[in-house]
Amino acid sequence: MPPRWDLLIRGGTLIDPAQGVSARRDVALRGGRVAAVAESLASADAGEVVDATGALVTPGLIDLHAHVYDGALPIGIHADRAALVNGVTTVVDAGSAGWMTFAGLRDYVIPTYRTRVYAFLHLSATGLATVRVVPELGDIRFAQVEEAARVIGENRDLILGVKVRIAHGGTGKGDQANAREALRRARRAADQAGVGLMVHVSDTPIPLPEILEQLRPGDIATHIFNGNAEQVLGSNGRVRPEVRAAAERGVVLDVGHASVHCDVKVAERALAEGLRPTTLSTDLHNPPPGRIVYHLRGLMSKFLALGLGLDEVVASVTSRPAAALGKSAELGSLAPGMAGDAVVLDLEEGQFAYIDGAGNTVRATRRFRARHVIRDGQRVATPAPAADHV
Ligand SMILES: [Zn+2]
Description:
Layout: E1 5-16, E2 21-30, E3 33-38, E4 46-51, E5 56-59, E6 61-66, H1 79-82, E7 88-94, H2 102-109, E8 116-122, H3 145-154, E9 159-165, H4 168-171, H5 176-193, E10 196-200, H6 208-212, E11 220-222, H7 241-248, E12 252-254, H8 264-272, H9 296-305, H10 310-315, H11 319-324, E13 342-355, E14 361-375, E15 378-379
Parallel strand pairs: 1-4, 1-5, 6-7, 7-8, 8-9, 9-10, 10-11, 11-12
Antiparallel strand pairs: 1-2, 2-3, 5-13, 13-14, 14-15
Helix pairs in contact: 3-5
The structure holds zinc ion.
The site of zinc ion has 4 residues, from loops.
């Protein structure tokens, strides 16, 4: 008789904010889905047993902001080698591709990954292909609403939103006109296609409130704790009222850490005033020499050290990004029937340091390490690397 379950994750503490569970649970998987969750399930019923003794078990992590168009962009990184082995079973490619270049991501890159990949299509026709050479919307002719909406319409299984960077490096230096027009066109493309909008808000040439005004519940402002001139804190050092209003109406405040898009002094001040990030994300990419990009588990460790609770940290990389993607019925929880994506995380004790592009250091006494990664009901064989960063 075949075993009742394909795989059993046994002996761990399940942290599953969507179910409100934070307790000792075994999780059984069958046919790529969660089959059972209980205080104790019998090993004899499983084809394979994954040992989670002394560890945390969470839904597979979801990184809402990454760049996995490996081979086509200078910043593109391999999803399986960088994200999956670190417990990230789902990544969102945040605008690496535009309507002209999306087919390559869809046909030649995503099919080679075991990592689940969704995309936000860049408003710029060629996405971020030119990113270290010229701003992708320095010439507004690259912002083609009809074409972007058409390609989204043709790829609804993969494309969940529109991405635009309202930044000097995205819409051009010394020219605010492109920033405003790019934002208008991005809004139109998202509305025309009936999808969400993700806006890069770091180093923006126009006031942050003008950007937030364009965002609706479920839309995403990424790089929310950047330390540039237009940031969440006003000149009085307090959280700006427009930022609070955006958070209150359901705009997703996403960290998008990267190396230069999160100033921990801004994050600490915002947290002290009760402004919490909705989601933690990495902006995972292949960085230029001298810059550090943390894995999602590294950012989880950093924000745990900054005072977020364990359940909140886990929610910000599981149930909340799943909700932002409209995938709560499938991803971000280990309730029976959900996708069989999970991670067994050790919370190691020691002395760890997390830096940012502004020169700040956060010291932590705990950090997350991926002991086992399970994707689609099967264990990923590759052992997790020790480093917290790319
Ligand atoms: Zn990015």
